[in-house]
Every structure is written in C-alpha cells, then in structure tokens.
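ingest -> validate -> predict -> emit
validate: passed (alphabet ok, no gaps, 184 aa)
predict: started
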Amino acid sequence: MLSASKVLFLAFFEICRLNKGPQDIPASKNLLTLCLVVYGLLSVQLTVFSQPIEKAVLAGILEVALIIIFSLALLQISGKIERWVQMVTALAGTGIIISILAIPLYFFIGIGIGIGEGGMVASGGVNILGLLFLTVLACWNICIMGHILRHAIGVNMFSGIILAISYLWIVYSFTSAIMPMKAS
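emit:
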C-alpha cells in the first residue's frame, strides 16, 4: 500500500510529466500550507547559495507571496477563483520537485562550493554541462507552470507558457529590486 506522501509525490510528478493537472490534486488547505512552507524553505536553500541568509529568507517569503498574489489575480480575472487552492498547491508541489532536482545541479556547476564574505559564492570554475542541465530544468519548469496555468484558467498551452514566463519575470524583477546582484 502506498503512503499518503508517496501518493502526493506521484501526483505532483505526474503533473511534472504533464500527464495530470491541478484538478487532480486534493483541494486541501492543509496540503496547500504544507506545500507553500516546503516550497518557501527550498527557495531559501537555493537562494542562500548566492546570497546571505537574511536576503535568502526575504527572497523565499517574497516568492511564496508572489505565487499567491499572481494566482489570485489570474483566477480572479478568469472568473475561476474556486480553483485557487488546487492551482497554488500544484504550483508549489511541482516547484518542490524542481527545487529538489536543482540543488545538486547548483553544486555540480560550482555554485555554493565556498563560503565567502556575504554568504555563499561561486567557485572558480563553472561546469558547462551542469549549466546545460540547469537550463533544461528551468525550461521544463516553465512548461510545467504553463501546463498548470492552462488547466487552471482554461487557456491553451502557449498562453500558459507566456503567463509562466511573465510570472518568473515578475519574481525576478521583485527579487532583483530587493537584492541587486553585485558585479564581480
């Protein structure tokens, strides 16, 4: 018999494979909260590789807030607000899987190897193959988000991908405004 956590993981993985949609996730506020907390913690973990912990925590909180606000806005505009819990749960749950896959890639490409002043810093050499894998993972994430948005608001895949890219641009813009990257 499968445990509840394994069933949920498999459901999120099937969304990552574009075989299921957010409608296949239980509309549970407890599950939503759990997924948002874990997603936020993993976002902090990924950000701490390049930023001090204080900024990484702020970035994690900002990312969770933006996923909530962006989803509410999209569903409000499309008149499908009742889908919010499942949509955000699916975005956070699949984001967890992508983040777990990204962490070893950060080490593979040489980010987070050393600890310098102001937090984690990149090592001297960057692994090009690792960057390629990270780029593929980022593209897959955009497709997953587009797939979720397509099902949640009832648009085609192309529109879902454009909305996903827009969301990522908003997150990047807000994060960059709060934590500008220092020139090396």
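The longest helix spans residues 53-78.
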